[in-house]
């Protein structure tokens, strides 16, 4: 057995351990600098509507790859079999959490469609490399997240408020963070708001709806990014008969180097 | 005689009228969408030091082109003869304004070097095209400008505070403006600050050091860009024996379409 806390540096080696049931822990820090993704699996009409929802809301739902119906592979992201290759899944029935298995082969259906969605890891790495403080990481906390009064564009049964994550930083860092994140449309892109939280319906910055309380220093301004919790909340609210997602922190590890993700997957040059 | 208020749409035709002394007015709105530039002419060691000053301070002093010593042309910007092709010049002797001629052929020296510097016209056009309000234009005022407590990097006798221009706008527009202006490094690039003016030494936003008082609406945040007044103030303070600049509003009109300036002059793709 491999200790989940020992670092596995190759994404393919990590996925092989996950596939064999030897690695069932959180993926942060594993798989080298490979892009990690949020996973959503839906069936039939729910899948069609969710694809339209992602297309209509690219900031919170940046699509890295969409599987063919019934096909558990995502070849543009690597040699991936989604029935086995995520360390822990969540199974939702009628919007309620039903199970947290490490393998979903027994649940796979021939009308299931898988969605790999970008997450904030990529741009947080880029911010850190640029010397911009990512305060929740330094403090060893989860990023604070908030429901806003901004609505997503509905598609089929999927709708609901935009959920945002917040990172506080000095103004000059905020400007640089905006220019950096604009180059990562597959990792939520540029922020959606900065400054006064009440303008987007956030009553108390110190009481996030998800994650941990923020670390805000004198001179910091709050900067808000569209967050991957948005589609999760929309799925829970829509109560599809069956939905499968990754468990929090237990991501889909791809073969794409983070720094090359935008260029390889979109043709957008990341500079 | 051509009325200076009639629009001349070709930059070459406009420069021909300027060269013949038929056009002596402000250039805003003339020459089609051609890039307009700030002009600085210095001689000998002053020119060498000013080039180093611009290199060290690219945000306030974005260099579009630098002439060869003694050569009054700038071939990368068009068929330009700087002894005649700006509608009105300012001549500075020992830091004091000495004259405002429409031709400087009699003053030209064989050790003079000309500097064409980018200005904010390019990015303001891009903001307007993106639907972002440029409040001083709507109000028919000059942009408000402020001396800050941020120092430029000195070079030779050139030094002094960074001067910034301010444009107030809602937060979401500020984020988009940052992503747009980052693509225009030759027009001062991304802002240098946003939010609290006191953080960069501005005591009263309603009392600018140059230009007109700002139009700030509820929900606006102030956004600050490095400003071309910075090198002008540095030159005045340095008191070189002789300096020649354009007169305010009477710019050097180039042949470069504004939208293509970054790509043509730097190889940077403007997206």
TrEMBL record, chains A, B:
Any one GO molecular-function label of the UniProt entry: lyase activity
SUPFAM superfamilies cross-referenced by the UniProt entry: PSTPO5379-like
EC number: 4.2.1.-
Family: Belongs to the D-glutamate cyclase family.
Keywords: Lyase
Keyword Lyase: yes
Organism this protein belongs to: Salipiger profundus
Alphabetical list of InterPro entries matching this protein: D-Glu_cyclase (IPR009906), Putative_hydro-lyase (IPR038021), UPF0317 (IPR016938)
Descriptive protein name: Putative hydro-lyase Ga0080559_TMP2868
Top-level EC class as recorded in UniProt: lyase
Any Pfam family the entry gives: D-Glu_cyclase
Domain of life from the UniProt record: Bacteria
Residues spanning the membrane: none
């Amino acid at each position: 057995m491999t200790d989940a806390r020992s670092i596995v540096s190759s994404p393919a080696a990590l996925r092989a351990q996950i596939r064999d049931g030897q690695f069932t822990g959180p993926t942060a820090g594993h798989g080298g600098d490979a892009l990690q993704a949020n996973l959503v699996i839906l069936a039939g009409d729910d899948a069609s509507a969710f694809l339209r929802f992602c297309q209509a809301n690219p900031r919170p739902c940046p699509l890295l790859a969409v599987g063919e119906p019934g096909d558990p592979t995502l070849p543009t992201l690597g040699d991936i079999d989604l029935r086995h290759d995520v360390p822990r899944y969540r199974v939702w029935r009628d919007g309620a959490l039903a199970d947290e298995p490490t393998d979903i082969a027994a649940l796979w259906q021939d009308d299931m469609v898988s969605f790999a969605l970008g997450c904030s890891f990529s741009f947080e790495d880029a911010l850190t490399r640029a010397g911009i403080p990512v305060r929740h990481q330094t403090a060893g906390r989860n990023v604070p997240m908030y429901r806003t009064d901004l609505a997503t564009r509905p598609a089929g049964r999927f709708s609901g408020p935009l959920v945002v994550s917040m990172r506080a930083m000095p103004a000059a860092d905020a400007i640089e963070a905006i220019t950096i994140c604009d180059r990562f449309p597959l990792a939520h892109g540029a922020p959606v708001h900065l400054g006064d939280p009440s303008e987007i319906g956030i009553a108390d910055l110190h009481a996030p709806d998800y994650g941990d309380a923020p670390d805000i220093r004198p001179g910091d301004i709050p900067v808000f990014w569209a967050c991957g919790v948005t589609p999760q909340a929309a799925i829970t609210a829509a109560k599809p008969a069956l939905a499968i997602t990754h468990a929090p922190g237990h991501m889909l590890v791809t073969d794409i180097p983070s720094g090359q993700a935008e260029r390889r997957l979109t043709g957008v040059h990341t500079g």
